């Protein structure tokens, strides 16, 4: 695979690159945004390798008319496209850059210190830059009576959804005390032509900003960005600490600062090259509204609940804007590959606090937090339990329902291998631990909302100090000499169609 060393400035340049790479299917046939488009995207996302990205050139709105705006979906829905979006061959390349950044030891001597400068200068390129002038994202402006969200191809994905939802969002808000920006990926339900419901879970930073402003009785400005450069889109989904600017992180990923511009009706910055920006405000005096149900990434519907209403003050967009979106549901789907990027990119940060970790993996079937395989370099008895407790203390990893700890040689990215080893290595009573703590708000099986039990499984080899006195068996492996001899004759065996059985040696 060949990737570009230059960052994508906008969503459309990324779509064009996918088209050139044979990773995009253009669909000219009219398809309804009510259920039909999502059924197609669901089938494609479950094809081997995640299928292709899709560009629906003539989506049909709920009133039966053709939309002015094409719909792009499944853009990030494969390992290859996820890597292309960030200009790398694999996500591990970015993890390697982070490892180098974390290992910034100041060397002795003038020459050594000078050798450090390029890496320090690289850091200085990351902060986003706010530009003046008329940006592409404000070429078209709707205000007042012009505001009509029904003109946008907002999808209704599943039959029992509470309405149409905007899903692949970048929701920008600002800390009312410190002025620190936050960009989060929260679903947004359309309520009418000029209002939406903002679904931000209680532990999200945007929700904290809203609570602070509501306590003061102040209206909260908010911008909902739909479509931007792929690094910024990914950054909105990443579990960054509250004081880390997502656009700064996107700049790090891009190796080039993100360009921003002031929104027209509120004091917030949005991407210069965004496709569509929905500006609005939340009035704390206004009653909460029912949001949902919603067919969620667990593969089950999440229940309706009360969330704040956003009154739209403006809609701005590019000429010939593309509506970027995604759907979630029974895995595997596009969100798995966004999660995979997070898994790979943030491994160095996890190892910084838990250094014995070798690798970890959240398989698609585990819906991110439901199952995490972790391999460790075991050096002492009981270390697996130490790692379990440490991981449950790490940010969103605190939501992990099942942790399976294995030895370093186990390939945790291969769930078949990881389960084979784990199920052979455990005595269920001896090697399983249960604890209580926070769980995902989408966990419908927990005994209480956001609170329930967790399970840790020690699937490492057991030491005598851990009470194991039997001989631990060796893994069955063929010797290398025999493997080489068979490799040499393989093409002659006719097993895979490349040779004929009975060929002479």
What is the CA-CA span between the terminal residues?
36 Å
Average pLDDT level: 90
The H-level CATH homologous superfamily of the largest domain, spelled out, is Electron Transport, Fmn-binding Protein, Chain A
Which parts are unreliable, with pLDDT below 50 for 5 consecutive residues or more? 110-118, 501-505
- Put simply, the count of helices is 14
**DSSP, total strands:** 27
The helical percent reads: 25-40%
Strand content: 15-25%
- Gyration radius (Cα, Å) is 25 Å
Instruction: Please tell me the CATH architecture of the largest domain by its name.
Output: Roll
Main beta sheet, described? Answer: 9 strands, antiparallel
Number of self-contained structural domains: 4
Q: And the CATH topology of the largest domain?
A: Pnp Oxidase, Chain A
Shape, principal axes of CA atoms: globular
Structural class: alpha+beta
Name the CATH class of the largest domain.
Answer: Mainly Beta
């Amino acid at each position: 695979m060949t990737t570009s060393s230059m960052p994508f400035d906008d969503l459309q340049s990324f779509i064009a690159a996918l088209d050139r790479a044979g990773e995009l299917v253009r669909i000219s046939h009219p398809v309804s945004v009510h259920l039909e488009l999502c059924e197609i995207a669901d089938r494609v996302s479950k094809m081997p390798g995640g299928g292709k990205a899709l560009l629906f050139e003539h989506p049909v709105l709920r009133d039966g008319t053709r939309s002015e705006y094409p719909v792009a979906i499944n853009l990030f829905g494969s390992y290859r496209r996820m890597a292309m979006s960030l200009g790398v061959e694999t996500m591990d390349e970015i993890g390697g850059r982070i490892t180098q950044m974390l290992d910034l030891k100041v060397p002795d001597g003038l020459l050594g210190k000078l050798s450090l400068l390029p890496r320090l200068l690289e850091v200085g390129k990351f902060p986003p830059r706010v530009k003046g002038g008329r940006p592409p994202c404000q070429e078209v402006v709707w205000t007042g009576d012009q505001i009509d969200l029904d003109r946008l191809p907002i999808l209704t994905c599943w039959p029992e959804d509470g309405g149409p939802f905007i899903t692949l969002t970048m929701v920008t808000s600002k800390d009312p005390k410190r002025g620190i920006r936050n960009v989060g990926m929260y679903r947004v339900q359309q309520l009418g032509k000029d209002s939406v419901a903002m679904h931000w879970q209680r532990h999200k930073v945007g929700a904290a900003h809203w609570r602070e402003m509501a306590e003061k009785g102040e209206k909260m400005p908010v911008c909902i960005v739909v479509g931007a450069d792929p690094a910024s889109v990914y950054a909105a989904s990443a579990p960054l600490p509250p004081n880390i600017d997502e656009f700064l992180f996107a700049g790090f990923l891009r190796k080039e600062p993100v360009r921003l511009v002031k929104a027209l009706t509120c004091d917030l910055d949005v991407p210069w090259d965004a496709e569509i920006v929905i500006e609005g405000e939340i009035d704390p005096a206004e009653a909460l509204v029912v949001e949902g149900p919603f067919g969620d990434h667990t593969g089950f519907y999440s229940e309706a609940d009360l969330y704040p209403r956003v009154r739209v003050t403006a809609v701005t967009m590019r000429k010939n804007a593309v509506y970027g979106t995604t759907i979630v549901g029974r895995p595997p789907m596009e969100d798995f590959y966004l999660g995979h990027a997070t898994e790979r990119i943030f491994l160095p940060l996890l190892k910084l606090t838990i250094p014995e970790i070798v690798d970890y993996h959240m398989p698609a079937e585990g819906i991110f937090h439901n199952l995490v395989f972790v391999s460790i370099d075991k050096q002492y008895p009981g270390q697996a339990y130490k790692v379990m407790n440490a991981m449950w203390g790490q940010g969103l990893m605190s939501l992990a329902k099942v942790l399976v700890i294995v030895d370093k040689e186990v390939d945790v990215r291969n769930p078949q291998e990881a389960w084979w080893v784990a199920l052979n290595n455990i005595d269920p009573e001896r090697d399983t631990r249960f604890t209580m703590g926070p769980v995902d708000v989408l966990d419908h099986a927990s005994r209480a909302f956001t609170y329930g039990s967790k399970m840790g499984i020690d699937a490492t080899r057991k030491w005598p100090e851990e009470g194991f006195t039997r001989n631990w068996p060796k893994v069955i492996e063929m010797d290398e000499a025999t493997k080489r001899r068979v490799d040499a004759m393989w093409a002659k065996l006719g097993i895979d169609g490349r040779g004929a059985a009975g060929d002479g040696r």
